[in-house]
Design goal:
single chain; 384 residues; alpha/beta; Rossmann fold; 2 domains; 42% helix
Length: 384
């Protein structure tokens, strides 16, 4: 059966590794993310990045763990951006493939349900862009000991977006357009609303749609009637592009504001000029000096631009490798303990893990889309 699984995986994804115990000179690290589905662009960028990093580590002689050198092997699976598939993948990685740690998934909807699996298996997982607080902390306030992340969280991101809308842009009335069945979208909408109203603003309309919908004119018409100063759209770039074009078709001229689901090279291509002068929150300055080495290497290797998720998964894997080296061990419990004391400089900024297994003090960036080429510029940092 294992041989059959290997054949299927190689044909489908050309993945590295397909089960079995650790080789004596190899560190097996899992990755899960969407290779198919609406979020495949980001998943493919993550997979490209972890492969590239593994090659770099191995070319340099491998990873030193307690005086012994190990090669890095990435065991990767397509979770299809689906929570059920993510659970199945997490079970395979921890029970069949015997990985020492996992990086990904990118979505909160996939990261939240795999937490019990990682906790039970005592295998640490570092999510890349899963920003919902429930990834690392349960609803009753208990920390998921084996779940970590490289990104900031939605409460902070929502606070930054609200501050940008109220203080930086001078807006007082906001509308929210969110995805009702996505924890990322609903969570970020909630934290934006709370923060915006605390500042003195008012949310005059809040409408939603279900994942997979492509026709947004009915809910957007409600927003138009409410006449907000700004419209907050905590959604992913493909939906944002559709919504922005339909909004402009309806005569909605207000500035649109979004979160970290917006940044993609495809956003501008899909949206045309409908996002001119609009803003979104990002995890880093992707055009900055800190990102340049990986940005250049990725372009040289894959002949395409690195996506936001490339940088985020880079730091996720960096956290895992750093923890393994400091733990001087390949045991999940030892790596988990080392992750709790992570304090390093990543591409996305300084990463210091706090008591809830989240980075503390990370910087968010407000990006404005301007110019005939729709380039991302006019950035400013807004720290905790």
């Amino acid at each position: 059966m294992r041989a059959l699984v290997c054949i299927v995986l190689v044909v489908a994804l050309a993945l590295v590794g397909c089960g079995g115990a650790q080789k004596s000179d190899t560190i097996k690290i899992g990755w899960l993310g969407p290779q198919t589905g609406d979020s495949a662009l980001w998943g493919q960028a993550e997979y490209n990045t972890v492969k590239m990093m593994a090659d770099d580590y191995n070319t340099a002689g491998g990873i030193d763990v307690g005086g012994k050198k190990y090669k890095v092997e990435i065991v990767a699976y397509d979770d299809k951006g689906d929570s059920t598939e993510a659970v199945n993948v997490a079970k395979r990685l921890t029970s069949q493939d015997k990985v020492v740690a996992v990086v990904g998934p990118q979505g909160s909807g996939e990261a939240i349900p795999i937490a019990p699996i990682m906790n039970d298996a005592k295998i640490p997982c570092v999510a890349s862009t899963a920003t919902n607080p429930k990834v690392t902390v349960t609803e009753n306030g208990t920390v998921n000991p084996y779940m970590f992340r490289a990104c900031f969280t939605d409460p902070y991101q929502g606070k930054v977006a609200a501050y940008a809308a109220y203080e930086k842009l001078g807006k007082r009335k906001a509308a929210i357009f969110m995805t009702i069945d996505d924890p990322y979208s609903t969570g970020l909408a909630q934290y934006f609303k709370e923060s915006f109203e605390k500042l003195g603003g008012k949310v005059v309309e809040q409408v939603s749609y279900t994942s997979g919908e492509k026709e947004f004119r009915a809910p957007l018409t409600k927003i138009k009637a409410a006449n907000p100063d700004i419209i907050f759209i905590p959604a992913y770039y493909n939906d944002v592009a559709l919504a922005s074009k339909q909004a402009r078709d309806l005569g909605i001229k207000q500035v649109l504001l979004g979160g970290d689901g917006w940044p993609s090279d495809n956003l501008v291509q899909l949206a045309g000029n409908s996002l001119e002068g609009c803003f979104f929150i990002n995890h880093l300055d992707m055009d900055g000096d800190a990102a340049k080495p990986m940005r250049d290497e990725y372009m040289a290797k894959y002949q395409k631009k690195a996506e936001l998720n490339s940088y985020m998964v880079h730091d996720s894997l960096l956290m895992v490798i750093d923890a393994i080296q400091r733990a001087k061990s390949l045991k999940g419990e030892d790596i988990q303990k080392a992750l709790t004391s992570t304090d390093l400089e990543g591409i996305t900024g300084h990463i210091k893990i706090g008591p809830q297994n989240d980075p503390v003090g990370k910087t968010a960036w407000l990006i404005k889309i301007v110019g005939p080429d729709m380039k991302f510029q006019d950035k400013f940092a807004a720290a905790d």
